[in-house]
Amino acid sequence: MLPTESKKALSFKRYIEDGDLVIVYERHDVMKPVKVTKDGVLQNRFGFYRHSDWIGKPLGTKVLSNKGKFVYLLAPTPELWTLVLSHRTQILYIADISFVVMYLEVVPGCVVLESGTGSGSLSTSLARAVAPTGHVYSFDFHEQRAVCAREDFEKTGISSLVTVEVRDIQGQGFPEKLSGLADSVFLDLPQPWLAVPSAAKMLKEDGVLCSFSPCIEQVQRTCEVLRSDFIEIRTFEVLLRTYEVKEMKVETGAMIGESHDEEANGGQRPSKRKHISNDDKHISNDDGYAVSQDNSSSPTSVVMARPCSEARGHTGYLTFARLQCLS
Amino acid sequence: MEKNKDQAVIMSENNNNNKAQDPNPRFASEGCSVLLDVNDGDRLVFARLSGGAVLKIGNKNYSLKPLIGAPFGSLFQVETGEDGSFLSRILPVKKESSSNNVIDDARDNRELIDNNEAQNLTGEEIEAMRREGAKGDEIIEALIANSKTFDQKFQLSQEKYKLKKQKKYAPKLLLRRPFARRFLRVDALSLLLTMANVTAYSDVLVVDMVGGLVTGAVAERLGGTGYVCNTYKGNSPPSVEMVRMFNFTDKVIERIVQSSINELSSAKTVSPEENNHQEGVHPSTSDMVEGTPVTAEARVVVDDVVLESKIVKAPKAGAKASKEAIEMWKENGFSSLIMAAQDQDPWALAKDVLPLLSYSAPFAIYHQYLQPLATCMHNLQQGKMAINLQITEPWLREYQVLPSRTHPHMQMSSFGGYVLSGIRISTT
Question: Which of A65, A85, A280, B46 has its Cα between 20 and 30 A from that of B161?
Answer without folding.
Answer: B46
